[in-house]
Amino acid sequence: MIKNLAVTILVDNRSEDPRLIAEHGLSLRIEADDRRILFDAGQSDIFINNAETLGIDLRSAETLVLSHGHYDHTGGVARMLELNPSLQVYCHPGIFIPRYSRQADGGMRPIGLSKTTADALHRCVDTIHWVSRPVFLTEDIGVTGPIPRLTAFEDTGGAFYLDPEAKSPDPIDDDCAMWFITNQGVTVITGCCHSGLVNTLAHIRSITGSLPITIIIGGFHLLHASAERIEATCDYLQSAGVGKIVPCHCTGEGAVECMERRFGGEVVERGRVGAIVK
Ligand SMILES: [Fe+2]
Ligand SMILES: [Fe+2]
What we know:
By secondary structure, the protein is α/β, with parallel strands linked by helices. The chain is 23% helix and 24% strand.
């Protein structure tokens, strides 16, 4: 079991510190005893500046985990690999597929990996690890691989497509999360949670067994969710007894407010760049 776990938010949509730059995206730096993991790499390479401001040397990270192939989680991959060319990269092989989202004006926008990111990952011939099923980095640290979509009330959370004509919906099968087993219970880290937060937590519980979920942190992608879905998600969090909830990135104000109303400020801590969750 991990004795010391600390998650530092390097990129989030919010910052309350003028020295730390926010952007639409996510990047988390995880210290788990002697392991140093970067989970997602933001939309740009701003996470490197933020890490420097926070006094974090990212060259000490030995592992990069990518939650899925959206631009706002992978934009800084090439710069990170320049900093540490021996970085071990974990992601689903579907991360490379072209993908699009339909905008409010009806236009289609590519939202997959940039060419710079894809080229950098393709050069990682000996250091990339495909996550097509649950992968254990250690006995206590894992990457889920694809998450079964079991609930009736959850979807990917947006108008996501595999083609610019919007004919084929993108199931975002490459969406992965991580778990960390500590002496307190299980900490869960999510990227955008396109599989649904309840599906994600249920899948991790099917792997980790009866251990309590103590902390969840990441994007929960509920910004377009119905009030019914948000309430059903909170019902599950309540029944699971989740001890701390740190909504970041794409969670959405309505969902955060519902969580705060249901669980209170002791449990819910809004994500922001520079926050350290232990
Ligand atoms: Fe995202
Ligand atoms: Fe996403």
